[in-house]
Amino acid sequence: MSRAFVVVMDSVGIGGAPDAAVFFNGDIPDTGANTVAHIAQACSEGRAEIGRSGLLHLPNLDALGLGAALRLASGDAAPGLDAITPSGLWGCACESSRGKDTPSGHWELAGLPVPWDWHYFPDTDPAFPPEVTEAAAQAAGTEGILGNCHASGTEILVRLGPEHLRTGWPICYTSADSVFQIAAHEDAFGLDRLLDMCRAMAPMLHAMKVGRVIARPFVGSVAEGFTRTANRRDFAIAPPAPVLTNWAQDEGRAVHGVGKIGDIFSMSGIDTVVKGSDAELMGHLARLVKTAEEGSLTFANFVEFDSLYGHRRDISGYARALEWFDREIGHVLQDLRAGDMLLLTADHGNDPSWTGTDHTREQVPVLIAGLGAGEIGQVAFADVAASVADHLGIPAQGPGRSFL
Fold it and tell me: What's 156's DSSP letter?
């Protein structure tokens, strides 16, 4: 039986979303945002020279069709991504869900457009209604909370980390996404206590259609500074209908999650999960390509493009991450078996050259290794799930259509 590997390059958008004008970073619409093109342009102009130099160098992704997909989606120039005849199947995909966040993108890639509007907390001070603040303090066992605002996850640690250590109160904040984030010191507050607090808050917030409650543990001191750890945990709303992982599992196929996948889908339809840094996750993906069962589905997310570089508007860092990923995925591709599908895509954009710190509404690449070469054109996010199901020989549900 055939195997399938779906790899989400978190936030690696290629511009051109037709509805970008109704999505914003602050007061600026996302019209014209293009994560990959603008990084490539910055590299060619010498504006991305920290830790790297020269044109954006992505030979493996470009050979599969990244540059061609970008030109199809947006028509923008991307210096260095100029493969004329890609060796893979390639195209671009557009999202229909009314969001530009992780759950919306992943659910729809898995065949389920989000059937509701997410709840977003206003960018006011305070950001949360009293009942949420009271529930958070009760869940923490404290007299109150810190934060109660929109904030950058690193900035708020600088600002409120010392007060957190002094008072023991959790730091609660949000962003332009549909999230309620709780930061706490792994030692002083306790990691298990933080996770228990998130579990306690999740039902209330999910009922409000807040997509995720996110545990943001950190370590460090006032003297040395604070650093977030890899023990982040997302408590997400469970998909309200079966998705690709369920379709596969219901047919007796093994389903493996790599990275945030277990959290994003609330473990629905997933047999095993491995977590870690992107470097560690690449090792897990390489292992699964060598060892995963015949007929299995592996679903992976590489988040650091987004979390470390996109939100922080770090063009050089994002370029370095792309070039690292390209080198590593090149090794993985060499170990594919005959009949395997490895599909590379993204869930939204996060243009590091753009104003603000939020995601950007973009189309995403769809690059497929193992099934020959050719253009699949402009497709829908849900078509990815239908096509993976087609390749695996399992029934598909939802609105998607196979492009294979």
Answer: H
Q: Which secondary structure element, helix H or strand E, spans residue 185, and what is its range? A: strand 179-185
How many other C-beta atoms lie within 10 A of the C-beta of residue 171? 26
CA distance 372 to 83: 16
* For residue 126, cis peptide bond before it (omega within 30 degrees of 0): yes
Under 8 Å between Cβ of 390 and 404: yes
How far lies 118's CA from each of 3, 15, 129, in Å? 34, 23, 16
Average pLDDT over residues 274-291: 97
Amino acid, single-letter form, for residue 164: H
Q: If you write DSSP's letter for every residue of 15-75 in order, what string do you get? A: S--TTGGG-EETTEE-TT--HHHHHHHHHHTT---TT--SS---HHHHHHTHHHHHHHHH-
The mean pLDDT of 121-127, rounded to a whole number, is: 95
Calpha distance 232→219 (Å, rounded): 12
Q: Which alpha helices (DSSP H) does 174-314 contain, by range?
A: 191-207, 244-250, 261-264, 278-291, 304
377: which strand partners? 91
pLDDT at 278 over 90: yes
Mean pLDDT computed over 71-84: 95
- Of 106, 137, 103, 134, nearest to 119 by C-alpha is 103
Whether the CA torsion 233, 239, 243, 245 is positive or negative: it is positive
Kind plus residue range of the DSSP H or E element containing 302: strand 297-302
Fill in the DSSP letter of residue 402. Answer: -
DSSP string, 207-220: HTT--EEEEEEEEE
Please, what is the Cα angle at 111 between 106 and 113, to 5 degrees?
A: 70
CA end-to-end distance (rounded Å), the chain? 17
Model confidence pLDDT, tens digit, residues 128-140? 999 999 999 999 9
